[in-house]
Amino acid sequence: MIHTVIFDVGGTLVKARSTLITFAEQLKPDDYNELLSFMIKEFMKIYRDENPPKFITIKEIIAIVLKKASAEFGVKDISGETDRRYGENYLNHANLFDDTIPTLEKLKKLGIKLIVASDADPDVLNEELSTFKIFKYFDRILISGAVKAYKPSDKMVDAIKDQCEEPYSGILFVGDTEVDILSAKKMGARSVLIRRNGEFPLKADYCITSLESLFDIINDGKKYIQVQV
After folding, report:
1. Angle separating helix axes 19-27 and 58-73, nearest 10 degrees
2. Would you call 187 helix, strand, or coil by DSSP?
3. For the chain, how are helix, strand and coil distributed in percent, rounded to 5?
4. What are 191-218's pLDDT values in tens digits?
C-alpha cells in the first residue's frame, strides 16, 4: 500500500528551463553551445560530489562555473551577480505542468503523505512553491540547501527517511533525473521516473509520462513493468 509520495520539483512538478542555458545565452548569444557544454560539465563536477570538503549551494556552484567560463572563453565575468540573476532567470522561465495541481489535490484526498525533496537553494525554492501556490499541499519540504547535502548522498537520504514512515516500500519517489532514482534505491522506496517526452534512458521501478499515471501505480502497480535499460 502506498502511504507516501516524494516529489522532486524542477522537471517533475514545475516546467523549468535550465538556468545554465539562460546564462550561456546571455553571455554568448550568437553561439553558446560550446560554452554551455563547458558550464554543465563544471557544474556537475561539484554537484555530484557526494563527499565535498564543505557544502556548496547551487548559487555558489553557478558563481564558480561563471567565473571559470569567463576565464576559459573570455566572456564577461558575471559571477558577482549570480545571487540576483539566478532567482530571476529561474522563476522567469518556470511554470507548473498542467497535471501538477490536479494530482496533488487528488493525492491529498486519498490521505497520502506528500513530501518535497529538492536540490535547490531554500530562498529560491520556497518562493517558487509560494508563487505557484503549491506549498500548502506538502506535509514536509526537504531542501538540499537546508540539509546541506544533495541527492543521493547518505545525509540527504537520511534526512528524507527521518520524515517518512515505514515500510519504505510503500513510498513512491517521483523525479526526472538519476539522483531521484538513486535516492529511492538507497532508502528502499519505489522509484518513478517521469519523462513527459516518452524517452526513458534510465532504469527505474516505474516509468511514466504524466503524473496522472501515479494513480495507476497506486491502484495496481503490476500494470507497470519495471524498465530495464
Report:
1. 30
2. helix
3. 50, 15, 35
4. 999 999 988 989 999 999 999 999 999 9
